[in-house]
């Protein structure tokens, strides 16, 4: 599904190149649950951003579902966002002015899904996440864990093939974190959604079936986990 | 999608109530001013536009060019001109003469209706006038109603006044000047307010006394002539025939000026101040353009405000932009989203603006002394204007912020790393400089206008204006015989100090010019402004003689008093030299007995003319009464009752001289008021905008402020730091504004012959005002920022 070949990313400052990522080559298959680990500043988030096409690599090739991402036009990339990629953020990033239901509806609007289907899909997702009662609340009326659930619901409602999550439990207490990680695992196993998460926590990484460890911009380890 | 975005927009507006109200209010005030200016300009431009053949209607006008470079213009033509034009020009389809006059109009008492007697402006018009101008006739028609002598056509309003109901008017009789009976033969629909033709009472031209005059030498502004150009005739085709016409008729070798006639398009009659018009209402294009510029300035400052506040606010929206982008929103969609938000705000502001302008409309009517009624939605064009404003302002104010916000990189936006500079601090600063430059220009303009107006009010005109009442007198020969008796009875009234018969007050809009001889039999190469006055005139108006004495009592021309300008123009150095020299003028001959100190005989727009004054009873039009200030009201009541017993068939009309003079500067008064109002609006809007910007800067620099505080900066030092950059901007803005304002103000003042010297003070003052406003605003807001809790600012990362 994802092919990375020799990805490099550096910032040039007064002729001195400071590398974030070096010679990153890897591939991720459909249905994998990959955790990216490593110390602060190692380049985990940059890698995830490149995977999410939020940043462009300085060098290297990136194929997403067989297509060359670096050669893609903005319009095509937006189509990928709409149909294949769901984002989950550490700080949830719900739109404050939208209710829970509206937050979940937003990506469907961009996908131009007709009203009736939107309603049923939102109802479906709310039901699955046990949030029907909270659908008219605003994000600031929810706890962190609940907000992250909405965040995941929002990522899922568009039925993506991959979810990119940047420290999804970083702001949560451990009980809530566990709940979220269980949800990811379930989604991965039952619906065969590819999941890519950046995490600091060894424990969270164990939920997945593969761990990529990055240090100083280089992949140090690539091990599979048999959970 | 649209519905959701609308909801989001409303929630956002509600969330940032402060910003929203600043935005909406600032914009609403700007828009309201623009609406008012639009209504005003639309009214001024709508004059005389409602005639079917409007674009083919022209007025014949007259001009004189003198050897000394002076030019004079008149809307009038010599009396024999219309007939000659009809005869000589094949290019005109119709030619019509119309004369303005005044008289006492009376309708006899009818059953159930008392007698009505009024002093009115009346007209004598040829039937063809109504073929050129397509008035709506309620009864009668031009070809029948105005062909016979002693017939009169009334407007609906006049007919209602004299006969109770216009339907009863036809066939009834009006009596003019207590002498002649006229039969009402037609009723026309009333003229709208926006007409240069306030025709109420129109007599048939064949009843006009001087209709057969062959005198090409005299022109009165009341004698007008209109022509209807044949279809397809170009104006340039008239050049040659007009030249031939002038050679044929205006060939008086002795005339001191060169006479010319041209055609003036109907649509410029309201706007060309070289010529007058029957309605005496003008609005030169220059002033309209001035107002439109002010309107654009207002709109611009309001939009700048909006841009500043919106870009400042943009940071808080960056997360939303990022999230929307990763959900698959295109940039174009985001741009439309933000633009429609702006449109929403503009729409709300526009509604508020409509309310505001509705509330201010009566004030604007007052400016015109209640002559005009304005209504917000009186003309459908206003809706087009509102729609255009909505679109223009939405784009002008919304496009830039929308481009900025939709351009945020999602990676940075999601990480909350969009820097505050994203909004283009440089551009925002430029906008504030522009805004403050506009403010400074208007402040300077207003100060100069106020100063010039008070200069005019307080300038000594060379004569007394206080407590002088001008009463007009009937002109018929019988009444003339009673003049002296009237004067005697008036002097018996307690509170009357001086009484003088005269043709006009020292400064008046009724002026006569004529050629004359001085100390030889040859005519002098310039004309003198003449006034027929009696011996008491100089004392009544407090005119000072610098040589000789006032004229002696007489009913005909016996002696002359001239002014300084006249003898200067004749190159007489010493006023005493002029005494005893013989003058001839208007067929009268006599010595100069006195030289009067120069006084302003026109408005201060114009130079003092050479003048000659003499006694001539047949030219006295009124009586000037100098009153004791103590009990004016009572004295005037006695004057009125004396008038009514002496001249029972006439209508008492009285004007106070000082109020009469104010009329000269009505346009300036209106413009001055508009200037003051709009300048304060602009100042207010800029103030709001500045407040918004400093709020933003304070937020943007919260962390910097906190760190500086930790390092030991005092609140005062912090406030100073924030003030500094703004003061520089205001300083630059003033530097930009000065030359522009100088050009504007210089041009405006050039319209006055007597004007203030342009000093540096208005400029300095404008700078001080804008600086102190800045300091106050910035200090208010930055004090809050400086006092904020340091920890709050530093703990976020």
TrEMBL record, chain A:
- Gene Ontology molecular-function annotations: ATP binding; ATP hydrolysis activity; transmembrane transporter activity
Which InterPro entries does the record match to this protein?
A: AAA+_ATPase, ABC_transporter-like_ATP-bd, ABC_transporter-like_CS, MacB-like_ATP-bd, P-loop_NTPase
Q: Name one GO cellular component term.
A: membrane protein complex
Which domain of life does the protein's organism represent? Bacteria
UniProt xrefs under SUPFAM superfamilies: P-loop containing nucleoside triphosphate hydrolases
Keyword Transport included in the entry's annotation: yes
Q: Quote the CDD domains the UniProt record gives.
A: ABC_MJ0796_LolCDE_FtsE (cd03255)
Domain ABC transporter: residue ranges: 2-225
Keyword set for this entry?
Answer: ATP-binding, Nucleotide-binding, Translocase, Transport
Hey, which family's this protein in?
Belongs to the ABC transporter superfamily. Macrolide exporter (TC 3.A.1.122) family.
What's the name of the protein?
ATP-binding cassette domain-containing protein
UniProtKB/TrEMBL annotation, chain B:
**Gene Ontology molecular function terms on file:** transmembrane transporter activity
Q: Does the keyword Kinase apply?
A: no
Q: Which UniProt keywords apply?
A: Cell membrane, Membrane, Transmembrane, Transmembrane helix
Location(s) in or outside the cell: Cell membrane
Q: Which GO terms describe its cellular component?
A: plasma membrane
Instruction: List the Pfam families hit by this protein, alphabetically.
Output: FtsX, MacB_PCD
Q: Where is the MacB-like periplasmic core domain?
A: 20-243, 441-640
Keyword Membrane attributed: yes
Superkingdom per UniProt? Bacteria
Record-annotated ABC3 transporter permease C-terminal domain positions: 293-409, 677-789
Question: Which parts pass through the membrane?
Answer: 21-41, 288-310, 334-361, 381-409, 430-450, 677-699, 726-745, 760-780
List the membrane topology term(s).
Answer: Multi-pass membrane protein
PANTHER family, per the entry: ABC-TYPE MACROLIDE FAMILY EXPORT SYSTEM PERMEASE COMPONENT 2, MEMBRANE COMPONENT OF TRANSPORTER-RELATED
Q: What's this protein's name?
A: FtsX-like permease family protein
* Species annotation: Pedobacter planticolens
């Amino acid at each position: 599904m994802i092919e990375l070949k020799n990805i490099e990313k550096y910032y040039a400052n007064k002729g001195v190149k400071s590398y974030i990522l070096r010679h990153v080559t890897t591939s991720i298959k459909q249905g994998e649950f990959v955790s990216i680990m490593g110390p602060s500043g190692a380049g985990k988030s940059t890698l995830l951003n490149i995977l999410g096409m939020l940043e462009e690599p300085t060098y290297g090739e990136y194929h997403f579902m067989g297509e060359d991402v670096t050669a893609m036009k903005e319009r095509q990339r937006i189509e990928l966002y709409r149909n294949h990629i769901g984002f989950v953020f550490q700080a949830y990033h719900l739109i404050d002015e939208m209710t829970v239901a509206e937050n979940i509806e937003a990506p469907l609007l961009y996908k131009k899904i007709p009203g009736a289907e939107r309603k049923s899909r939102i109802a479906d997702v709310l039901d699955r996440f046990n949030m029907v009662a909270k659908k008219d609340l605003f994000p600031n009326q929810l706890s962190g864990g609940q907000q992250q659930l909405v965040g995941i619901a929002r990522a899922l409602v568009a039925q993506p093939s991959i979810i990119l999550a940047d420290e999804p439990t970083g702001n949560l207490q451990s009980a809530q974190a566990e709940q979220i990680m269980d949800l990811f695992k379930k989604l991965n196993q039952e619906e065969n959604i590819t999941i890519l998460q950046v995490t600091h926590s060894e424990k969270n990484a164990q939920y997945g079936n593969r761990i990529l460890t990055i240090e100083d911009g280089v992949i140090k380890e690539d091990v599979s986990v048999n959970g | 999608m649209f519905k959701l975005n609308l909801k989001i927009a409303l929630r956002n507006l509600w969330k940032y109530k402060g910003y929203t109200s600043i935005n909406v209010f600032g914009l609403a005030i700007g828009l309201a001013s623009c609406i008012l200016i639009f209504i005003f300009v639309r009214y001024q431009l709508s004059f005389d536009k409602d005639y079917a053949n409007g674009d083919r209607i022209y007025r014949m006008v007259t001009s004189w060019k003198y050897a000394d470079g002076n030019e004079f213009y008149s809307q009038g033509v010599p009396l024999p001109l219309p007939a000659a034009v009809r005869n000589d020009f094949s290019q005109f389809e119709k030619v019509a003469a119309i004369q303005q006059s005044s008289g006492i109009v009376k309708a006899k008492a009818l059953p159930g209706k008392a007698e009505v007697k009024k002093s009115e402006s009346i007209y004598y018009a040829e039937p063809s006038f109504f073929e050129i101008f397509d008035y709506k006739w309620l009864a009668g028609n031009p070809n029948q109603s105005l062909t016979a002598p002693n017939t009169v056509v009334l407007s609906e309003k006049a007919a209602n006044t004299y006969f109770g109901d216009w339907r009863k008017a036809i066939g009834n009789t009006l009596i003019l000047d207590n002498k002649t009976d006229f039969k009402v033969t037609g009723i026309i629909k009333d003229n709208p307010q926006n007409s240069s033709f306030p025709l109420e009472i129109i007599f048939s031209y064949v009843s006009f006394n001087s209709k057969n005059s062959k005198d090409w030498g005299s022109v009165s502004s009341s004698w007008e002539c209109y022509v209807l150009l044949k279809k397809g005739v170009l104006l340039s085709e008239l050049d040659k025939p007009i030249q031939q016409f002038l050679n044929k008729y205006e060939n008086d070798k002795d005339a001191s000026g060169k006479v010319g006639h041209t055609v003036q398009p109907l649509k410029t009659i309201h706007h060309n101040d070289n010529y007058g018009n029957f309605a005496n209402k003008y609005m030169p294009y220059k002033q309209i353009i001035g107002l439109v510029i002010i309107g654009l300035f207002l709109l611009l400052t309001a939009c700048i405000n909006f841009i500043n506040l919106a870009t400042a606010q943009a940071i808080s929206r960056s997360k939303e932009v990022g999230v929307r982008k990763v959900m698959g929103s295109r940039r174009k969609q985001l741009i439309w989203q933000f633009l429609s938000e702006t449109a929403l705000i503009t729409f709300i502001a526009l509604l508020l603006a409509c309310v505001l302008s509705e509330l201010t409309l009566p004030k604007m009517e007052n400016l015109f002394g209640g002559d005009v009624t304005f209504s917000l939605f009186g003309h459908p064009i206003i809706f087009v204007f509102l729609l255009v404003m909505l679109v223009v302002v939405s784009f002008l104010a919304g496009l830039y912020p929308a481009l900025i916000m939709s351009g945020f990189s999602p990676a940075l936006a999601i990480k909350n790393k969009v820097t505050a500079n994203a909004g283009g601090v440089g551009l925002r600063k430029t906008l504030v400089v522009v805004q403050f430059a506009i403010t400074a220009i208007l402040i300077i303009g207003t100060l100069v206008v106020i100063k010039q107006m008070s200069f005019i009010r307080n300038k000594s005109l060379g004569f007394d204006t206080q407590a002088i009442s001008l009463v007009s007198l009937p002109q018929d020969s019988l009444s003339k015989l009673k003049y002296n008796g009237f004067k005697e009875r008036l002097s018996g009234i307690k509170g009357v100090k001086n009484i003088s018969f005269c043709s006009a007050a020292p400064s008046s809009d009724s002026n006569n010019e004529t050629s004359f001889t001085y100390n030889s039999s040859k005519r002098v190469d310039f004309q003198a402004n003449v006034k027929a006055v009696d011996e008491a005139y100089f004392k009544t108006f407090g005119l000072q003689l610098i040589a000789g004495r006032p004229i002696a009592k007489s009913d005909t021309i016996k002696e002359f008093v001239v002014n300084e300008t006249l003898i200067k123009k004749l190159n007489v150095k010493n006023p005493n030299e002029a005494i005893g020299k013989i003058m001839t003028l208007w067929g009268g001959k006599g010595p100069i007995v006195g030289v009067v100190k120069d006084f302003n005989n026109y408005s201060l727009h114009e130079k003092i003319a050479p003048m000659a004054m003499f006694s001539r009873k047949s030219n006295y039009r009124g009586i000037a009464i100098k009153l004791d200030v103590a009990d004016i009201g009572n004295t005037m009541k006695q004057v009125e009752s004396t008038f009514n017993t002496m001249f029972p068939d006439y209508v008492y009309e009285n004007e106070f001289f000082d109020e009469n003079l104010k009329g000269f500067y009505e346009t300036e008064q209106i413009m001055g008021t508009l200037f003051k109002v709009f300048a304060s609006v602009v100042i207010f809007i800029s103030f709001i905008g500045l407040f918004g910007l400093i709020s933003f800067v304070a937020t943007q620099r919260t962390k910097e402020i906190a760190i500086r505080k930790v390092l030991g900066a005092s609140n005062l030092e912090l406030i100073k730091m924030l003030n500094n950059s703004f003061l520089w901007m205001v300083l630059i803005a003033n530097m930009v504004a000065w030359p522009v304002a100088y050009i504007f103000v210089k041009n405006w003042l050039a319209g006055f012959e007597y004007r203030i010297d342009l000093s540096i003070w208005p400029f300095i003052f404008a700078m001080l005002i804008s600086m102190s406003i800045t300091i106050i605003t910035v200090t208010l807001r930055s004090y809050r920022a400086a006092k904020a809790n340091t920890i709050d600012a530093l703990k976020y990362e």
